[in-house]
Write a structure and sequence with these properties.
The structure holds two protein chains of two kinds. By secondary structure, chain A is mainly alpha-helical. Chain A has 15 helices and six strands. The chains are: A mainly alpha, B mainly alpha.
Chain lengths: 330, 355
Amino acid sequence: MSATRVEEARPPAVTTLVHRVGRTEALLFALALIATITLIITTHGNLLHSDTIRAVLQYLAVPIVIGLAQMVVLAVGQMSLSVGVLTGLSAVVSAGLMVDHGVTPWLAVPGALLIGALAGLINGLLVVATRINGFIVTLATMTIISGLRYGVHGTGTYDGYAPGLVKFGRASILGLPTVFLVAVAVAIAVAWFFRRSVAGRQLLASGGNPLAARLSGISNDRSVVLAHALSGLLAGVAGVLVLMLSGSVNASIGDDLLLPSFAAPIIGGVALVGGAVSVLGTCLAAYVVRLVDVAQAQYNINPRWVDLVVGGVVLGAVMLSQSKDGTDET
Amino acid sequence: MTDVMAKSEPEALEESLPAVQRGLPWWANQRFGLVVVITGLVVLFSTLRPSFLNVDLTLVPMQADLSVFVVVGLAQLSVLSLGHMNLAVGRMAALSAFAAGLTYDRLDAPLFVGLLVALVAGALVGAVAGLIITATGISSFVVTLALDFGLLGLVSLLYAGFTDGVAFSVHPAGMDTLRFDNMSDYCSGSVCGPPIPLVVPFALVAMLAVGILFRLSRVGREILMTGSSLRTARLSGIPVNRRILQAHALSGLLCGLAGWLLAMNNGAFSATLGEQFLLPSFLAPVLGGTLLAGGAVSVLGTVLGSTLTTVIQKGLNLLQFQFDQLQILIGGVLLIALSLDRVRHVIAERRGVRT
């Protein structure tokens, strides 16, 4: 799960733990640990209460998955502005299928994933076919998808769908919320994809150096389409997690996910230029951002401070990791 | 320091060659295409709904909206010239509007003092963004994204601290005149002005100033050179860091102007002002042919680009499309417009090769 960078050949002598997991991850891990311990001490152990732990982890699931959805497109040097609204669309459509059409969750959940993957696929095909910058294409599809999302049920709310699904989503296994476990499983799958699978390595190769990738017989177009489709699929997963967790969904879901989707991978040390991903870094960053929320709730701070602090954390973390990268990359 | 995402695609590289642009036939010009599309849409909308040409109901409000969006587009254009982005356009506008509102509320300042305060506040925030980018070398995307987060919190904290609710209710002298009057309300004898809202001249001044800056001034040309190749610019003795800072400060300044204009149009200074700026800020320059890769800008294209989006929005509104259908159509039109542009470009290039 370390920072995988294709063209980089690490000297075999370096085997210390810090170097093995990458310095950004080590830094983030230390930051997360210190912040957690500080929170535990200052709240007099309140954070260790099982209910608090469950709440912290439950609402960590969606940020992790949405961060990974963005990370996958960043890997090929693209970005997707549509992941947030796509999460909302797949959640709303899936809920609509269950409430209005009586579809079983066994079909509606794969339906949500399918919608996500399809929309992502369309993003990728548009980028490849029109050769327009991915930023602009996903800006346009973001507008379209947010329209579709309101088109499903207007501003109304769906609730009372699939009680079994919601019950499962709010349940815990060995003290860990199921949604969190799902997110961890997804993270492990994504990490495996980028470390071990041929397609994953090809994505990183295309992102790292398109020309070299082409000369080695990799289709960059295929990489871009695959990355967008995968990102859409992950947004669909995030949509399902929202369904499982909240018990009621409406068309505003996903509006507040765009910025966090960038925050997690960027703090986690994923470069915007592509070619490098860090699943562990993205997950740790999502946790750090989540801690800001937790601190706000624990200390009863004005919630408006959260955005301000998160902005500072994003900038601070990137500054720290970039100043260190500057020496060996230029 | 450079936003490599646009440049990492090989096709962006060939697009950014100005020689290709110059060798194209006149009909491949993006601005010409936009004029044709806008004219076509105006004819279409006014045949379907004659009220589209109604002066008081449609044309005057449309111009007021347009003035704001042109300035927002120019704010984005200022940093696109470097190949940078400013994701905090809306929040910079909100902060500037807050500064202006506070000046009016606490100091009873005259209208133009508030405008000045808004401009200075915007320019300062923009300069801070530029400073962080040049000092740390972090990409502008990340810096302005983080800044957007930060300002989102800051602006609502400021409003909560300085007002009872979420807005300043103060109305400085002249604000309502600026909001409701248009030039046809001012007559000398029997000759009245054209039905143009009073906010339009502000946008015109901004257009001219930005146009002159990038076309004629040394600073503007050097910003463009920095955008087309940072390395070459640095080796040519251009103070690149200062130019990057200046471009971002200009972007902030224009955000300040846009925020102030929108506050005038709305008649209120509220924390949510500018929330909807991000999409139009990119739409206008990109539709108008400004590249994300940097090094080339088109002020006229930006004006036409924002005119197109405003016309589409007003027209579909009049045809009583719902909000969601409107979103879908605007996104679709954007995609089609950009794809057609690409097709036209490719065809023109092939012809250019043959002849």
